[in-house]
Amino acid sequence: MITELSIADIIKRQRDFFQTGKTKDVDFRVAQLKVLKQAVFENKEVVIKALQADLRKPEFEAYALEVAALKEIDFTIKNIHNWVKPKKVSVPPEQLPASAKIYPEPLGVVLIISPWNYPFQLAISPLVGAIAAGNCAIIKPSEISSHTSAVIAEIIAKYFNADYITVVEGGVETSQKLLAEKFDHIFFTGGTAVGKIIMEAAAKHLTPVTLELGGKSPCIVDTDINLEHTAKRITWGKFINAGQTCIAPDYLLVNQKIKPDLLNAIEKCMKEFYGNNPESSPDYARLISQKHFQRVAKFLEDGNIKIGGEINQDECYIAPTVLDNVSPEASIMQEEIFGPILPVMEYSDIKEAISFINSKPKPLALYLFSNNKTLQQKVLQDTSSGGVCINDTIMQVGVSSLPFGGVGDSGMGSYHGKKSFDTFSHYKSVLQRNFLIDLNWRYAPYNLAKLNFVKKIIG
Ligand code: NAD
């Protein structure tokens, strides 16, 4: 049990360490990124086992979407020397001689609170940015993915000095104790409702926040598509991690002309991916908990089960399911599903699909399957979402040069690649002048010539 005092103490020790200035040294940061890489690399089997224990996560998915944090570390090590360089900017002529530069500087001690669905990746990936930018960090992993939480705590304790980077394990109460303290940044990944709690707590200390939240990410399917590729990409994106992916396509908005063909193609893919009985497939994960299972299983009543629908409560198993004839008023359409059920809604004119999306909170991701360039532009122009992926699902998250984050209810701020460095940095503006000349135009007593000069500058 962590007491209030010990949390305060941990933070105090990290503040003292930060004050030594060690983390400001870029060589130190690179060395620590290499330590993190080694820590992930040497422990990947343990991590994969923990993910299996928590979510029965298939090894492939654990590698591709969690141990993948290694790629982010490599990208950062490769680019950090460019990112830390002060950036020279222009100076208006009346200020010359002078130079202006923007210096990135670390924020201090940051808090990273992570969720249970990709419990390793979503703790480690923000940490890469925090280290690169020169901060000390405390990670609070989700208590719900308890095996992975324990492994993260063990690994970090083994490879890092706790005065620099440490893990505080625990649930809501621990989270609240952490939030009662002052941090220099809070990076939170989780649900929208909890995001509000985090922001409220942060406001008391004027702590800036990054909120990586969730929501209902729509997937529009037009008629002008490659049916086979579309079906595969939707099936994969929806059912990896048993649908417990923040950017999973939450529901389909499909052109009614292609709906029967699309659903048949998705059914074929589901059989190819998981066989006739997905419960026995090693490539299909489980829901995280009984509570979560019950919440998601209820949605099965919200439409006609077209494919799947089987459940096994003891195993927290819900088959990959496609739900047809779903009313927009149904409960499955009111909240993020975060499970392996794909409701299907249809449209006859793209305007209907767009206005449906715009009647809901802004999603984290928006998917569009269409070769039609005019339609692509229309959807891009007429909707707002954290990100968009055209003709695929999920893959946008793997492009380090694309910032990842939400807008409105799906979050604020972003990260990945350079954006992670930016998120954990303060950009300090520095104007530097010298003593060579000192023109009198701005000093009192003001006269007409000075006034005219100012008028000329202002325009
Ligand atoms: P959650 O919000 O319940 O929990 C996230 C973290 O917050 C956990 O560490 C938890 O201990 C802590 N927490 C929970 N309640 C709290 C409270 N009252 N006060 C303080 N801390 C609290 O989220 P979850 O169930 O772990 O994850 C699922 C949600 O996360 C989904 O909505 C999903 O879309 C979202 N998500 C978003 C992203 C993204 O990158 N945008 C990624 C993964 C998950």
Summarize the structure.
This protein is of the alpha/beta class and 459 residues long.
Computed over alpha carbons, the radius of gyration is 25 Å
Question: What is the global morphology?
Answer: globular
The molecules bound to the chains, other than polymers, are:
nicotinamide-adenine-dinucleotide
Summarize model confidence as the mean pLDDT: 96
Total separate domains: 2
Tell me roughly what share of residues is in helical segments: 40-55%
Strand fraction equals 15-25%
Number of helices: 16
Unreliable spans are: none
* CATH H-level superfamily title of the largest domain: Aldehyde Dehydrogenase, Chain A, domain 1
CATH architecture of the largest domain: 3-Layer(aba) Sandwich
How does the helix and strand content classify structurally? alpha/beta
The first-to-last residue Cα distance is: 65 Å
> What is the fold named in CATH at topology level of the largest domain?
Aldehyde Dehydrogenase, Chain A, domain 1
CATH class of the largest domain: Alpha Beta
Give the number of DSSP strands.
Answer: 18
Describe the structure.
With 459 residues, this protein is an alpha/beta fold. It has 2 domains: 7-213 and 410-427, Aldehyde Dehydrogenase, Chain A, domain 1, CATH 3.40.605.10; 218-405, Aldehyde Dehydrogenase, Chain A, domain 2. The protein is built from 16 helices and 18 strands. It has helices spanning 4-19, 26-42, 44-55, 59-67, 69-83, 121-132, 146-159, 172-179, 192-204, 227-239, 259-274, 290-297, 350-358, 373-382, 418-423, 448-458; strands at residues 87-89, 98-106, 109-113, 136-140, 165-167, 185-189, 209-212, 218-221, 251-255, 304-307, 311-312, 317-318, 321-324, 341-347, 365-369, 387-390, 411-412, 425-433. The strands form 4 sheets. A 7-stranded mixed beta sheet has the order 10-13-14-9-8-15-16, with helices on both faces. β6 (185-189), α9 (192-204) and β7 (209-212) form a beta-alpha-beta unit. α3 packs across α4 and α10 (227-239) packs across α11. The longest helix has 17 residues, at 26-42. It is globular. It starts with a helix and ends with a helix. The mean pLDDT is 96. Bound molecules: nicotinamide-adenine-dinucleotide (NAD). The site of nicotinamide-adenine-dinucleotide (NAD) has 28 residues, from α8 and α9.
